[in-house]
Write a structure and sequence with these properties.
Length: 283
Amino acid sequence: MSDQPITPELRQWIVDQAAAGQPPEAVLQAMLASGWHEDVAAAAMENVLRGALDEHARANGLPLFCIVPEPLLPGTPQLLQLPDREVRVLASLRNPRVIVFGGLLSDAECDELIVQARQRLSRSETVQTATGGSEVNEARTSEGMFFSRGETPLCARLEARFAALLDWPLENGEGLQILRYGPGAEYKPHYDYFDPAQPGTPAILARGGQRVASLVCYLNTPPRGGATVFPDAQLEVAPIKGNAVFFSYDRPHPMTRSLHGGAPVIEGEKWVATKWVREGRFD
Ligand code: PD2
Ligand code: ZN
């Protein structure tokens, strides 16, 4: 890097290109055309843009930006070949970042998770950011349980699959959470990140940092109701057995438009497995 310093002019030029809506690849190509080595140019861009985002956040009293998982979708494929399974890409949205996957779990895997979880269900609690503990919450009328990471061979297989799908370290994932909603049960709209303004949040973040993305996998198909809803995008994702909805949030702030909820189940029951991933290792 020493023979190709990032001058203030270059820094400003990169920021101006991004502000004008130039995609990162175009900025990178222009740098390569003017003689920059690819790895040095990419590092310079990342460094400058990250600095600019942090500066913007500080100037506007916003939480700092985090790097989030981004499932690799080069060339917008319909099918993703993971090491142990082919997965369909059914829909995606940029803002909020939402991707719907088809066939992420087999029917047998869904059934087995339900069998393993059923005996261990209790009324769902949510993390209480005021204290860092957990509490029963009227906004969440489901029952649930957590597997620890790698607890069963099935959990370990799914964790490895999700890490490959999200291109994010397995060690940054929380254990799988299983939820069962009976008729009328719902999960009112909420954010999955921890609210930085709450006094219990620093204690929660000490283990793995912020949550940066969620993957909600549907383990059955309720006959009616139970969609996962994103009110800011007016989007409803149908709960279909084996499918999953991914969403990420690059800072703990409503500007991510990641508000989401589980609509009431109208008929039958709904089972999901949720994977939350953190910025860092969740040990
Ligand atoms: O079950 C759902 O659709 C749902 C909705 C909102 C699950 C979660 N949030 C979650 O597990 O965080
Ligand atoms: Zn949620």
